[in-house]
Specification:
Blueprint: E1 4-10, H1 17-30, E2 34-39, H2 55-66, E3 72-75, H3 77-81, H4 87-97, E4 101-107, H5 108-111, H6 120-126, E5 128-133, E6 147-151, H7 159-167, H8 178-187
Helix pairs in contact: 2-8, 4-6
Amino acid sequence: MPQRIGIFGGTFDPPHVAHLVVAEQVKEQLGLDEIWFMVAHHPWQKQGSRVISSAEDRFGLTALAIGDAEGFVVTRHELDRGGDSYTIDTLEQLAAASDDEFWVVIGGDSADGLQTWHRAEDLRSLARFAVVNRPGHEGELPAGWDGAVVEIPALDVSSTDLRSMVADGRSIRFLTPDAVVQRVGELGLYRPTS
């Protein structure tokens, strides 16, 4: 029987509590069966802007973040495919393998730019879109795109902030699950290099 799946793509460098809240709220408000955390293999839009942790490290951190949360799955689709991570490639791969209904989870700040995404017209035909609005980052789907708006609680937490805090020697406890905090320390991630 086909399922309703939310595709939550990202760099997840590192994953944090706001990612988990977004996933839970989208799953609950849209009545989805599962949320798949789609860790980008090569987040092409971020290359050159900063050092990005290895795909395997980001996958491992995301798996630790979701733990055994019911309805949350971390997937290797983009990691195993390799190359640049384009949503259309992932959706075509998924659609060819199942009859599931896919919802792509995006921030309100990204909704206005959907028409500029790689192969946007094809993308529009393969999925519905869950636009996540949070204070200061609200948006709506462009005309002709199918989906829904999901309101989430105001949580001002970002991966950028967490990386900066670790680099400054500050604690990220409670901003990401304890298992992620521990693994970031073990791997020495986000520390300044000498």
